[in-house]
Design goal:
Strand content: under 5%
Order of helices and strands: HHHHHHHH
Structural class: mainly alpha
Largest sheet: none
Oligomer: single chain
Number of helices: 8
Distance between the termini: 39 Å
Length: about 180
């Protein structure tokens, strides 16, 4: 069944990509630069998921440039978080850290709690890969608390997985995490 599931997931992703490409074309035709930047960002995210890192890099760079030109800090923060995630996938820890710190600064300035949480998670993953487990723990716990506050259960599940992986790497099997009320 895994092959069938992968095939179905890929089919759905390709349908979603086609919709996003249509959205991008409409935004470009109508001059909707914000919509164009968002479509490019979402296409870049999808390219990351499909491991097409070259295309992801191009799409996200275009999205970031457009958002920066518009002065759209919330969307720029989100796109920069995705660029940081891409750098992590490529194993560029230093580049990821630089990009994610910029994304975190933008998210904080824009009051974008959700993106701030995502940045903290990605910075935590970067610190974990760099074997700075104390820093990773602090960042991931802070990200988890922010995700809990905005009720993002999907990304919270990813965060809990990352915290579990960190506990295994630290050989701290008694580690637990708590949730705010």
């Amino acid at each position: 069944m895994p092959d069938t599931y992968f095939g179905e997931s890929t089919f759905h992703a390709l349908g979603w990509r086609q919709s996003l490409e249509q959205s991008l074309a409409l935004c470009r035709q109508s001059g909707d630069m914000k919509g164009e930047a968002r479509s490019l960002c979402f296409l870049g995210e999808m390219a990351i998921d499909l491991h097409d890192f070259e295309q992801a890099s191009e799409l996200l760079a275009q999205s970031a440039s457009t958002s920066r030109g518009l002065g759209d800090e919330p969307d720029l923060a989100y796109t920069m978080n995705n660029l940081g995630s891409l750098a992590l996938y490529r194993g560029d820890l230093l580049g990821a850290k630089t990009i994610l710190e910029e994304a975190m600064t933008l998210a904080r300035a824009a009051g974008h709690v959700w993106v701030l949480a995502l940045c903290k998670n990605n910075l935590g993953v970067s610190a974990m890969a760099d074997r700075d487990y104390e820093k990773a723990q602090a960042l991931m716990e802070a990200g988890k608390d922010l995700l809990w506050s905005v009720k993002d259960r999907s990304n919270l599940a990813v965060q809990l997985h990352n915290l579990g992986l960190l506990a295994l790497l630290r050989r701290d099997l008694s580690s637990s995490t708590s949730f705010g009320e």
